[in-house]
Amino acid sequence: MIPVEEAMARLMEMAEAAPIVEREHVPLALAQGRVLAVELISSLDLPPWPNSAMDGYALRLADWQGEPLTVSQRIFAGQAPEPLVPGTCARIFTGAPVPAGADCVEMQENAEVLADGRVRFTEALSVDQNIRPQGQETTVGEQVLAAGTRMGPIELGLAASLGLAELVVVRRVRVAVLSTGDELIEPGLPLGPGQIYNSNRVLLCSWLQRLGCDVIDAGILPDDLDKTRAALGSLNHVDLILSTGGVSVGEADFLGHALREEGELSLWKLAIKPGKPLTFGHFRGVPVIGLPGNPASTLVTFALLARPYLLRRQGVADVVPLQFPVPAGFNWPKPGNRREYLRGRFENGRAAFYSNQSSGVLRSAAWAEGLIEVREGTTVSEGDWLNFIPLSEVLG
Length: 396
Ligand code: AMP
Ligand code: MG
Prior knowledge:
six-stranded mixed β-sheet, 8 helices, binds adenosine monophosphate
């Protein structure tokens, strides 16, 4: 069996050997979830000038001997101020440029306006207080985001703050989703004998969409070699064929057959639970990942292996989801020979897992907040620290 780390390393290698190189320009409003093809360099200082962090008064500290000051101008955000008249202060509002000659802003709460209009400051003052310096966010020429960054709301906000209206991003990855199995029918149809509803199709299609992929829904593939061959052959325009089911080494291993015939195949037995069998190969040059068919296995292997593969194809450097140690709320007395990813959540500050961890049970994951990692060959006692991977980290 291949340890999870090794499978991951091999998948990353294969992803790096087939990077998506085409780029496109997209407006900021449509760039959500896309991956930057080039680094983002600031063409300006941000903020472009020192500005006030408070509503208050700007003054030059050396001019102030403790006596009240005359207000010589009012500066609102969006205005360009005059240089400060020596020996006076300026009324200033948050975000307004600090006038040349001023080096201190006092908040209005610590200022008293006298009957003659002059302003008295009631607290001690210091140079630079309440001034956001020019370039505190970034300066001209600085790299703000690296190529390979996925653009979420925060990164988009950052790009907007630099004045960018569009971004150069990597073309979307085109992924065809194939569900295999004679037993599958689509939701909405009556269930015949021996049939089950196809749940992996919508699970993967919607997930891939969240990841910014171009999804080609290739429907259900019956357990039949000719049809498998034909279906794979018709998907020659995609970057990845992602199938589920038919990868256990049973008689219905048609995906494996087709790949052996017309490409190459690595059939991996992974030390992962749920999700032992995983197929990786090429069909006439198109990469194929065959995930196991059991819904919880599909979920775990997609989250931990296929997702990082797809991100790396787009040049994303950081593909490993955030994970952190949590105290176990259970005992695990029997060491396993595969790494288990229990669908679990927090109960009273400790990680608890769903009562039924069968790979056929998707409700475990709907109940869960994340995957609790129990390493192969280890036992767990309550209070031991285990790795926790929040599902929210991998779903987008
Ligand atoms: P297989 O790898 O084809 O033997 O499938 C393993 C298990 O997962 C079987 O119980 C299948 O019925 C089930 N399964 C396979 N594909 C799907 C699917 N698309 N939706 C729901 N269950 C599936
Ligand atoms: Mg099957």
